[in-house]
Design a protein that fits this description.
binds nicotinamide-adenine-dinucleotide; single chain; binds 2'deoxy-thymidine-5'-diphospho-alpha-D-glucose; 13 strands; dTDP_Gluc_deHydtase; about 350 residues; dTDP-glucose 4,6-dehydratase activity; NAD; NAD(P)-bd_dom; EC 4.2.1.46; alpha/beta
Length: about 350
């Protein structure tokens, strides 16, 4: 079994690469990643010498490079994590989101059609469903919830999902799609809420909370997401969408306060800043389908997952300090200067 994992040098993709190489010692895992600001080859250092692993630095938007890789590897499956993934960046500059998230997905699927494939899996997001109101805790996203996006990021992911479904219906491509809630855990890029707050708190820097901090996200430990995708690519029904979520809704402000408490830092570091444009209020996934069909349930309680995550950031300071001292610094200063 040869699986091309795109975006495997990023947060969830790298955790998935580790999960697959550990669990399936006879599988070949080929990581295709062009190493944007969010891709980090040092993350993959532990597997670089594994004979069942290959890293290829190319973009999923480069048709020639993608076809060449398919010719060389003759993959059985493709799991597409590669994407521009940060909502704030999509608000600043949507174009690259359209290129990678939409065109890149089409190029990968064209390669799958041309060379044949057992499964193309699209890693999507609960953000394609838009948001839910705070005063309706009875509402959840199901796989039937209409697509109703808010940001350029979520719109590009929704467009990709629609293309994946079109390639299934039109060309009979054997696809599956998963739509997951917010992940957290090791190797999470420190522009996202949890790792940003950990890094800033450790450096005694202000903790910038957008708006009133009332927005709700449904947090899932990254390993649980990887296990869900593993189940879907092996046992999920072709043509289907599977929601993945932890039934673990929390407000942003509560998350930041937990991080302060775990690190022994004062809540006076919390700084309320201007809200994100078009900020989604609440995400909440109903994961009944994947539970009933594939027996998946989240295994990591948030109280344990956040402790593990903070421990990882404490023990791997070099990983994130290198990031925040580089080009990222310019982004951070620009994003937060006027808030
Ligand atoms: P990330 O930003 O940490 O990593 C993205 C990776 O994709 C990086 O390694 C980057 O170099 C690579 N990449 C970007 N453009 C590429 C291109 N054109 N060609 C090849 N590689 C490219 O993202 P993440 O948080 O790990 O998210 C992975 C996937 O999961 C994305 O598709 C995202 O939409 C989805 N998702 C993320 C979350 C979350 O909470 N992080 C939740 C649900 C779904
Ligand atoms: O729901 C899945 C999505 O989760 C994925 O599709 C995205 O790729 C991923 O980035 C994530 O999107 P969010 O926008 O929810 O994540 P982010 O970490 O950027 O923000 C989480 C919440 O925290 C959100 O309400 C905005 C808020 N926030 C974020 C940052 C970076 C702050 O209050 N302050 C901040 O500095």
């Amino acid at each position: 079994m040869t699986i091309i994992v795109t975006g495997g040098a990023g947060f969830i993709g790298s955790n998935f690469v580790f999960h697959m190489l550990n669990k399936y010692p006879d599988y070949r895992i080929v990581c295709l990643d062009c190493l944007t600001y969010a891709g980090n080859l040092s993350t993959l250092a532990p597997v670089m010498d594994n004979p069942n692993f290959r890293f290829v630095k190319e973009s999923i938007t480069d048709r020639e490079a993608v076809y060449k890789l398919f010719e060389e590897e003759k993959p059985d499956m493709v799991v597409n994590f590669a994407a521009e993934s940060h909502v704030d960046r999509s608000i600043e500059n949507p174009e690259v989101f359209l290129d990678t998230n939409i065109k890149g997905t089409a190029v990968l699927m064209d390669a799958c059609r041309k060379y044949g494939i057992k499964r193309y899996h699209q890693v999507s997001t609960d953000e394609v469903y838009g948001d839910l109101p705070l005063d309706r805790p009875d509402l959840f996203f199901t796989e039937e919830t209409p697509i109703h996006t808010s940001s350029p990021y979520s719109s590009s992911k929704a467009a990709a999902d629609l293309l994946v479904q079109a390639y299934h219906r039109t060309y009979g491509l054997p696809v599956t799609i998963s739509r997951c809630s917010n992940n957290y855990g090791p190797y999470h890029f420190p522009e996202k809420l949890i790792p940003l707050m950990i890094a800033n708190a450790l450096n005694d820097k202000p903790l910038p909370v957008y708006g009133k901090g009332e927005n709700v996200r449904d947090w899932l430990y990254v390993e649980d997401h990887c296990k869900a995708i593993d189940l879907i690519i092996h046992n999920g029904r072709v043509g289907e969408v599977y929601n993945i979520g932890g039934h673990n809704e929390m407000t942003n402000i509560d998350i930041v306060k937990i991080i302060c408490k775990e690190l022994g830092k004062p809540e006076s570091l919390i700084t309320y800043v201007a809200d994100r444009k078009g900020h989604d209020m609440r995400y909440a996934i109903d994961p009944t389908k994947i539970h009933n069909e594939l027996g998946w349930l989240p295994e990591t309680k948030f109280a344990d997952g956040i402790k593990k995550t903070i421990k990882w950031y404490l023990e791997n300071k070099e990983w994130w300090e290198t990031i925040i001292s580089g080009e990222y610094q310019n982004y951070y200063e620009k994003m937060y200067a006027n808030r």
